[in-house]
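We emphasize that the prediction below concerns an isolated chain of 408 residues; any contacts that depend on oligomerization or on bound cofactors are therefore not represented. The input was used exactly as deposited, without trimming of termini.
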Amino acid sequence: MIRSLGRAQLVFDLIVAGVLLLISVWSAAATRPVMGPVVVVLFCAALAVRRLSPTLSLIGVWVAALTQIAALVEVNGGNIAVFVVAYSTALYGRRAEHWLGLASAVVGGVIGAYYLTFASATSYFNPVYADARNLVSFVAIAIGLVTLFALSWTLGLLTRIVRQAREAKIEAAVAAQRAAYESVVEQERTRIARDMHDVVAHSLAVVIAQADGARYAGQTDPQVQSVALSTISTTARSALAEVRQLLTQLRHEVPDGPQPSFSQLPELLDGMRAAGLRITETTSGAPVPLLQVSEIAVYRVLQESLTNALRHGDPAGSVAVEWRWETDALHLRVRNPVRPTPSPLAPAASAGSGSSVAIAPALQAGHGLPGMRERAALAGGTLTAGMMGHAMFEVAMVVPAAEEEGQR
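Result of the prediction step, given as a C-alpha cell string:
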C-alpha cells in the first residue's frame, strides 16, 4: 500500500534517513568495509519509506536484518530503524500490516537475541558448544528485545488510537454543526412556509368572499362592487408585498422584515369584517406587556382562526373573539359556527358529543392547526383547537406575559 504524503513529509523522512546514514555508515565500514555500509543503506532505505509504505518498510527491515546476520555485521546505528519501523507499522499500516508488525517484533526479537548470543565475528552459530550461561543470556536478551520491539509497536498503536479518537471527535463536532445548521435552515423554511400559508390563505379567503359578495350584490347595488374591488385590491397588494418578502428570505440571508404586532389587530379585524365576517369582541382584565414573539404568535393565530371561520364557518353565525388578560398571561379564545358537512367517513371530532359533523379538510391537515400550535409553543404558551358541541369550532390560546427585569 502506497500512502499519500505531502512534499514536506517526504522531505522530512528522507532527511531523517540521510542523517542516520551519515552517522552509522562510518562505524559499520570500519568493521565490514563492504557489507557494513550495505546493511546500513538497507536499514535507512526502510526508514525513509516507513510512512509512504509501511509494507515496503517492513520488508526492507527484514532484508536488512537477514543480510546483517548472514554477513556477520555487528550491531550499529542503522539498527535504530527497526524500532522506528515497528512503531510506524502500528501507526500507519492497515490491519494486516500492523499485525504483521507485531509478529515481526516478536520473531525479530528472538532471532536478534540468538544472533547476539551465539554468533561471532569469525564463525556462524555454534549452539552445540553453548553452555548454560549462554542459554540464560539468550533468554534474557530475547525477552529484552521482544519487549523493546513490542513497546515500539505499542506506542505506535496508542498514537494511532489517539489520532483516530481526535479525528472522530472533530468529525462528530463537524457533523453536529452541520446538523444544527440544517435544523436551523429547516426551521426557517418551516417558518416561511407557515407565514406563506397564513398570508395566502387569509388574503385569498378575503378576495374570494369579496368577489362572491360583489357578484351577487352588484346586480342591485353597483356601489357594492366598487367597495369590494377596493378591498380586493388592497388585500392583494398587501399579500403580494408579504409574499415577495418571504421569497426574498428563501433566496438570500437577509434580516427579517417588519412583523405584525398588536397595533395591526384593528386593521386585521376591520379587513375580515369587510370580507363579510361578523365579529364580536369582548375584553376583560388589564393588558400586560408581551414579548414580540408572543405578539406575532397572537396575531398569526387570530389571523388563521378568522380565515378558517371565513372559509369554513357558517355565514349565518358570528365569530366571538374573547381577550382575557391576567397578571401573568393573555388568554385568547376564538369561536365560530361551522357549516355542517355530514360524512360517514368523517372522524369523531366532537369533544364529549356524538356529532357526525365533519371538520373541513383544511382544519384537519396542512400548515393551519399545526402551525398555530407551533407558534404558541415557540412563544412559551399553549394552544388547543377542536369542535365544541355539535357545530362550534374553538381555538384557545394562552401566552405568558413578558417577565419584568426584577422578576428574572
